């Protein structure tokens, strides 16, 4: 009987842990957490956020949904890498900045601004921009041209190839001395979502609530079975005690 009760306790703990929410990401901004919750909702995964002192916001999902949630966020390029604007990059850190430092900051800032702009294009998941602005010799008549390489990953089902000329034109007009022909653009479609789900898999915003109900039903069943066997054992013990008492009385009378 003790072994049965221990087994029931272990099973109950296992189901409780399966229904608990686990931390998926931490140190997020509230806007990033909201964006990730919306993306997971589109994938049929329930998620929530919680503010953590000194650690921003954390993203929570059901323990059994962690692998699926990670894959769903990766498919849409989340969480996004933090970017800086030109004002943050050119913030004075010392009294005097060297021309080389100012040049590096300018190039990096231009790349960051272009990436932020490309990420605002509908369907773009990931955007990386690398700009090369050579230092020209003021005594030379030969001017080295600037160049840029752009990588864009977009959602499946959206064709950005028609927008390739506009993307190149946007980059060319954002960098001084950069021509359209010196912009290299690589477009890549993201892998399609896996729709092969087993039958009976619940998809939708109520999946988390239904899974909790299922856990509670299983727990109640385990408790009911344990109580049934416990009472059955008590009844057997009482029956044996009663039989033993009757036998003793018959022996005493005889």
Explained architecture:
The protein has 254 residues and is of the alpha+beta class. The chain has a domain at 81-192: 2-Layer Sandwich (GMP Synthetase, Chain A, domain 3). Helices cover 48% and strands 17% of the residues. It has seven helices and six strands, in the order αβαββαααββαβα. The strands form two sheets. Strands 1-3-2 form a three-stranded antiparallel beta sheet. A three-stranded mixed beta sheet has the order 4-5-6. Strand 2 and strand 3 form a beta hairpin. Helix 1 (2-19) runs antiparallel to helix 7 (207-253). The longest helix has 47 residues, at 207-253. The protein starts with a helix and ends with a helix. Mean pLDDT is 74; it is low at 196-210.
């Amino acid at each position: 009987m003790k072994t049965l009760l221990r087994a029931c306790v272990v099973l109950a703990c296992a189901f409780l842990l399966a229904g608990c929410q686990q931390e998926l990401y931490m140190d997020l901004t509230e806007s990033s957490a909201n964006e990730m919750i919306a993306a997971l909702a589109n994938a049929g995964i329930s998620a929530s956020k919680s503010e953590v002192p000194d650690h921003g916001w954390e993203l929570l999902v059901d323990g059994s949904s962690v692998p699926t949630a990670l894959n769903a966020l990766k498919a849409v390029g989340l969480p996004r890498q933090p970017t800086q604007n030109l004002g943050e990059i050119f913030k004075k850190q010392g009294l005097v900045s060297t021309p080389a430092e100012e040049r590096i900051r300018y190039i990096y800032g231009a790349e960051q601004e272009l990436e932020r702009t490309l990420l605002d294009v509908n369907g773009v998941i990931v955007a990386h921009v690398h700009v090369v602005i050579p230092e020209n010799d003021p005594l030379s008549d030969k001017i080295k041209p600037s160049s840029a390489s752009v990588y864009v990953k977009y959602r499946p089902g959206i064709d950005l190839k028609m927008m390739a000329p506009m993307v190149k034109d946007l980059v060319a007009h954002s960098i001084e001395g950069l021509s359209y022909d010196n912009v290299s653009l690589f477009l890549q479609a993201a892998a399609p979502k896996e729709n092969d789900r087993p039958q009976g898999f619940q998809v939708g915003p109520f999946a988390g609530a239904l899974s909790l109900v299922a856990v509670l039903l299983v727990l109640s069943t385990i408790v009911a079975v344990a109580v049934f066997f416990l009472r059955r054992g008590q009844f057997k013990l009482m029956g044996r005690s009663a039989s033993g008492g009757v036998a003793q009385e018959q022996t005493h009378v005889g």
